[in-house]
């Protein structure tokens, strides 16, 4: 990735985050008590995870799908509940079996000494399951056609996905990883691309979860890239980090400045992947809902067309962003893999790039 | 802060599910899809190559045919020329022979005419001699009164009997 587009992405993330932070202010507890806060609190509620799948509120009636709550407690084993156990008829939060859901959608125990892990099927986990079922259904059926007629031209869904698969292979994997080693990384690159893309698109559906805009999900995905990068790192890759060739010796001894910088580089790569995807998707959701929130804030019918127009516009932009972010995550993963498996030669650093191109 | 605090449960499920996705799609989707794509690309490339080869062979065949036709034409021309030459030769020979025969016949005829002529002259000479004798006889028989008259007479006769 070249510098200018990198700056562009950073810039757009910056503005989106700025906007996100500005919009977050009213929903901060304390301020939320004000009239304005209640009108926009649904935004933050949407972009975060929840133990139940809230569909809509009609008057004072909350319509939501209850989801399983699973708790692993040390010593006591697994507890299974339904999220509806933690709400009464009025949809007020209640205690159940020593546990309750707090204002931040966290599961807490009334007895604070209890050690447990919340592995509930939350809204995001449920959405994850749905997306995976969709992924399996789409790609296993497509793969079946490839198995049956490997030489015939693509048809239907296959012809829609084949150009993308070929694009990932020929434009992302091949040039960045290299002709010799790209095949090993293809399954991961394809999986991560379609996983992110499908979930980005699913997140745009009304009432859907914001899965790829959740920091836990993007962190896990970034960790996968991080682990694969470093596991497949060659001797040259590690040498580059701890004894960078072509750098003056006083940058390495006695203060190992370069190795420290390079080592930080290992960590910043997945960190940037995590933040980029999270911020872009979450910001997109916040912007669309902020445009809708304008209706509640202004309480005017004249704001409707404006809201609808800009909301529609942003939704179109988000369709594009859904693809771009999946593409960027895949591309950067491929670049990191490429750096890890690259074959370096001492001469290249001292004698310039002529040898490399020769 | 809530937004940027990763939840344990979601990390847990995401890790398990994504590993499962990698495993299942890697084995049952990406592997057959990528290998099928590769096979197809290979078969297309091979087909293109063989088409190119066939084209080349075709061009070679056409060139060979052209060459053969050309050679046949040259051969034909050669044969025709040879035949014409031979015909001309035969004609020439016949003409020469005819000429030789004709010349010989003319020669023979000329020789025959010559000999015939000689014979005729011989006969005439004999006749002249005989006639001379007869004239002499007649003159002798006649009275040889005047010498002058006799001589004139002889002269007259002799004039008449000029050779041929």
What key attributes describe this structure?
heterodimer, A: 358 residues, mainly alpha, 2 domains, three-stranded antiparallel β-sheet, two-stranded antiparallel sheet, 61% helix, 9% strand, globular, disordered N terminus, B: 164 residues, 2 helices, 0% strand
Any overview of this molecule?
The complex is a heterodimer of chains A (358) and B (164). With 358 residues, chain A is mainly alpha-helical. Chain A folds into two domains: 57-121; 123-357, no CATH class. Chain A is 61% helix and 9% strand. In chain A, helix 5 packs antiparallel against helix 9 (303-341), helix 6 runs antiparallel to helix 8 (257-298) and helix 8 packs antiparallel against helix 9. With 164 residues, chain B is mainly alpha-helical. The radius of gyration of chain B is 64 Å and the shape is rod-shaped. The N and C termini of chain B lie far apart (169 Å). The chains are: A mainly alpha (358), B mainly alpha (164). The A-B interface holds A 24, 44, 47-49, 104-105, 117-122, 124-125, 128-129, 132, 135-136, 139-140, 142-143, 146-147, 150-151, 162, 165-166, 169, 183, 186-188, 190-191, 195, 214-217, 219-221, 224, 278, 282 and B 2-15, 17-18, 20-22, 24-26, 28-37, 39-40, 43.
SSE layout:
The complex is a heterodimer of chains A (358) and B (164).
Chain A: H1 3-24, H2 35-47, E1 53-58, E2 61-65, E3 68-73, E4 77-82, E5 99-101, E6 107-109, E7 116-118, H3 123-148, H4 157-177, H5 182-203, H6 215-231, H7 235-242, H8 257-298, H9 303-341, H10 346-351, H11 354-357
Antiparallel strand pairs in A: 1-2, 3-4, 3-7, 5-6
Chain B: H1 8-141, H2 147-160
